[in-house]
Amino acid sequence: MGNCGAMEILRELKEKCETPNGKLRQIANAMKDEMQAGLASEGGSELKMLVSYVDNLPTGDECGVFYGLDVGGTNFRVLRVQLGGKEGRVVKQEFMEVSIPPNLMVGTSDQLFDFIADELAKFVGTEGEGEGEGEGEGGKKRELGFTFSFPVKQTSINSGTLMRWTKGFSIADAVGRDVVMELAKAMERKGLDMRVAALVNDTIGTLAAGKYLNVNVNDNDGGGDVVAAVILGTGTNAAYVERVDAIPKYAQEGIAQSEEMVINMEWGSFTSSHLPITEYDQALDAESLNPGDHVFEKIISGMYLGEIVRRVLCRMAEEAAFFGDVVPPKLKIPFILTTPEVSAMHHDSSPDLKVVANKLKDTLEISSTSLETRKAVIELCSIVATRGARLSAAAILGILKKLGRDKVIKEGDDEQKTTVIAVDGGLFEHYSEFRHSLETTLQQLLGKEVSSRVLIKHANDGSGIGAALLAASHSQYNHINI
Question: Where does the Hexokinase N-terminal domain lie (predicted)?
Answer without folding.
Answer: 10-212
